[in-house]
Amino acid sequence: MKIAIAxxxxxTGKSTVAANLGFTLALSREVALVDCDVxxxxxxxxxxxxxxxxxxxxxxxEIDPDRCTxxxxxxKFCRFGALSVLKDRVLVFPHLCHxxxxxxxxxxxxxxxxxxxxIGRVACSSPIPRLTLVSGVLNEGxxxxxxxxxxxxxxxxxxxxxxxxxxxxxxxPVIETIDGSxxxxxxxxxxxxxxxxLRLAAEVAEKMGIPAGVVINRxxxxxxxxxxFCRERGLPVLMTIPxxxxxxxxxxxxxxxxxxxxxxxxxxxxxxxxxxxxIA
Amino acid sequence: MIRLAVVxxxxxTGKTMVAAAxxxxxxxxxxxxxxxxxxANLELLFEPRRITTEDYLGLEAARIDTAVCxxxxxxxxxxxxxxxxxxxxxxxxxxxxxEGCAVCTYVCPTGAARMxxxxxxxxxxxATDRGSLxxxxxxxxxxxxxxxxxxxxxxxxxxxxxxDLLLADGPPGIGCxxxxxxxxxxxxxxxxxxxxSALHDIERLVTVCRRFGVRIFAAINRFDLAEDIRARIEDYxxxxxxxxxxxxxFDPMVIDAVRNGRPVTRGAASPAADAxxxxxxxxxxxxxxx
Lengths: 280, 290
Prior knowledge:
Number of strands of chain A: 11
Distance between the termini of chain A: 12 Å
Number of domains of chain A: 2
CATH architecture of the largest domain in chain B: 3-Layer(aba) Sandwich
CATH architecture of the largest domain in chain A: 3-Layer(aba) Sandwich
Helix content of chain B: 25-40%
Helix content of chain A: 25-40%
Oligomer: heterodimer
CATH superfamily of the largest domain in chain B: P-loop containing nucleotide triphosphate hydrolases
Strand order of the largest sheet of chain A: 3-6-7-2-8-1-9-10-11
Radius of gyration of chain B: 22 Å
Number of domains of chain B: 2
Structural class of chain A: alpha/beta
Order of helices and strands of chain A: EHEHEHEEHEEHEHEHEHEHHH
CATH class of the largest domain in chain B: Alpha Beta
CATH superfamily of the largest domain in chain A: P-loop containing nucleotide triphosphate hydrolases
Strand content of chain B: 25-35%
Mean pLDDT of chain B: 96
Low-confidence stretches of chain A: none
């Protein structure tokens, strides 16, 4: 089973839910926790442990100047502006390359070869028994987050139970993360910002045909609008985490409420049963 | 004119709250830009009156004309994004995965694969009582959010003509939308909070911002929720020579203000509003804005 955790709005508590759910499940079964928020991965902060790094590379063009006739076909074909054919040479902008391989196909001289370029890494660790943590990390200044997400997901593919922690937003990194999941947990908070962005996240899950349930975090008890939205859209509310300074304090120092506060292990187990029930 | 972007690395630290407060109390002629195009929230606090709406087309996407397709599957073999899928016994492009590279159109022997415009969102300019606002909506699930941010920046640039300040509310993260936001700015204000995640994220964000040669300031939101981590953030900023322009206490009035759809500085006096006024004064003095 693959469960993705997403939110639309940032900072609603995706990683908190992912880390606590992962820890709770690992008490009784094998689970892989995959940090797909590769721009700002945080799950490893909850689970400090030595990790093995696997570099993530993407193929980018290299021009053989001896064969290149400066015909300009590659520059014309590339829709990402990654190749610029000048009078005396071809400039390659590897940051802009999407690794589609088009330039190598169109080059009439066979002058383009693809070489691997490192854009990030996947860090794998086993911080506690039965838990595998796989963290995608995009190098600073790089933009191909989806390629790092794909690599992190590929490394955890064999696990029977996987939790993907998505980045905020609703754009390509989120799509890449929740693609192929059996269910999606949408984490929100009961503010107008939270609800506005929950609508967007729910729309993404619906568009991708992935069933979803909702966790309301930092609730101050005034959740009526969020609850009404969930009812209207047929989204089950699987868990409500109240705002309390005690919970905030545990989270701020990188702690886990399911381990450090009584009663939460049971609630996260119930969350798992709830999301499993959504997959029908 | 000063171009200032409010950013955070980690999401949910209070970027929009701070950006809205600064816009509310800046006291200088300004234009606003909401560069968090996947989840744009600034408009929820300023009741913008829409002036212009434009379609955002993004990069073209491929489509396969089934009437011409001879079913050879060469396109699917060459597509590196898994965007060409078999559905109802025919090849079809899954727009969620199509990156718009056009390789399929090149390899297709019959010309069945073609590129066509892909509506990916809308770009708006609006009037607010605190200046013009450039903003956008990325259709959920669309790509190219960085390109859309660039379009918002362009609109904001023309709206800001003659103003003293262009104030942008940035996206979370450090990827393409953030890079598109920060490029060409004079300064960034990083809104952070005292948590181990936010502390970790600020370091990666600063690394990216340094490459753009912008001045970097920080604000610590809800600083009183974890005094020890607040001290670690202050230490980090000192080492990096980042001015901490303000520290905002945890204040339930902030959520009340958001619920009422207004900046926290508009309404009854509160500890957060006072701290935001002090933040504005420190930051503007540093930037030479009066």
